[in-house]
Amino acid sequence: MNRSLRNLFMGLVVLFMALPLLVVAGVSLNGGQQLRFPPRDPSPRWYAELFMAEDWLNALANSLVIATSSAALALAIAFPLAWFVWRYHTGYGRLLYGLGIAPFTLPPVITALGFLVFWTVAGWHGSILATIVSHAIFFVTLPLVTISLGLAAIDRQVIEAATTMGADEPTVFRTIVLPLVRPYLISGYAFAFVLSLNEYIVAYMVAGFTVETLPIKIFNSLRYGYTPVMAVVAVVFVLLAVLIFGLIARFGDLPRLLGAWSKE
Amino acid sequence: MTDRWPRGLPARLPVLWPAAMLLLFFVVPFGIMLAVSFFHQVEGGFYEPGFELANYARFLDPFFGRALLFSLWISVLAAVIVIAVAFPFTYCLTRLRRRAQIPFLVFVLAVLSLSEVIIGFAWSTLLSRTAGLSNLVAWAGLIPRAQAWTPSFGALLMGLCYLGFPYTVLILFPPLSRLDPEIPEASRTLGASPLRTFFLVIVPVLRAPLLGALIMVFVFNLGAYLLPQVLGRPQHWTLSVHISDQAVFQSNLPFAAAMAIFLMLFSLAFIGLTMVLGGRKEAAR
Lengths: 264, 285
Hints:
The complex is a heterodimer of chains A (264) and B (285).
Chain A: H1 3-27, H2 45-52, H3 54-87, H4 91-105, H5 108-122, H6 128-138, H7 141-152, H8 156-164, H9 169-198, H10 201-207, H11 214-223, H12 228-251, H13 254-257
Chain B: H1 8-36, E1 40-42, E2 46-48, H2 54-57, H3 62-95, H4 98-113, H5 116-126, H6 133-139, H7 153-177, H8 182-189, H9 194-205, H10 207-222, H11 227-231, H12 239-248, H13 253-284
Antiparallel strand pairs in B: 1-2
Helix pairs in contact in B: 3-7, 3-10, 4-7, 5-7, 7-10, 8-9, 10-13, 12-13
């Protein structure tokens, strides 16, 4: 495609994608209750509201606790599995790997309903622990895929050399595998963290009436009318995602992480 | 270190923990859900163990048929639109220098990670009377005064396309960025225009990943559960919305479970189809 035509096309698509976010950013600056664009009496008061009002602060805290711990748990499940599948060729290893990919490919409401009946039977329905475990399982796909990519990039000859020189399995793991795969561990954690922060249906079905996360709080508030605080949350989430993915791109190879070949 | 099979229990230890977690918290919940789908629904939101097909028999209701047909129709429509835009977009993206791709990828990932709640809220604001696009159109004099464009079918379709776009870009990114640059170059050298090259060389070469992406986006759209509630009217509710509605508000867990099992088998059939398509392509190499 012709260069200027290409730039025009890409620009239009990006504009379409950015449009709702720009309007939301504008709306978040309204001085009053109403959502107006362009904003009237611009003021940052609703930003203060998110970090001061007890109910919003509580939802923010819930979201952060769930995202940090469920991403850690997802990583703890994914890492040994990814390592095992990379290290050994076994049928059950591959089967478990497929099981780890499944929650992300199916429509989420199915997994959410599965969790709902499971936690009801187990008696943990409505507990924050149930939300954390559910999110860890639901998002285990992300660290599983990134770590597997990282392991696949390790040159097997390096490992063979180490073994020939007399390194045992734990030494190889500690001195070669772990340092090489570390950036992929971090990005896997970051992906799971950001998505958990934004997740609605699983959190809602597992503990929606007792553990209010930010997305649940926004949706509940939508029913009673819109306020600029929702726009503030949207802006904060977009900025947070840009920051985190920007950091991954800064310290890692983002195109490679998303499936491009390693070299230019 | 070179052996490819685990020997003895210590070698298998690392896989026990993830296996236990996935079995207990993923396979067992699905098993319970499958069982519940055969249970008997009792008045007042309870159910008792049993084995009956009553919940599946309700699929013959016109209610279920309408919801299913509508879900399929809007998911297919949104998937086709999204592919038509995302495929040329991703192609252009992968032709950029690697450094220049990064800001686009960060943006696409940021939009992808956004909650459906936030996307629904953003679109309903964008299409609203007080803060929306219609103000711009009214200001330009095309319509007499600003009006609300949501809830409506069009608003829901827009929202679904917005939701599916970043997902599609990421699905298409690996095959397109791995496309041998010599293929379009050869076509250009032989005198084909850039547009001709795109439609007559790139699209046919990537037919299989393209079809795979179409199916993946279709299944992804089937999973939308909040947009139909925020941007659509009740007749625009998809199967996903009805499943959560039956489970949470109608307290009819067995029926919700039966619909979820149906949706799962349906989605798995389509995902299996993409794997067959992908496998055939691998075999052809």
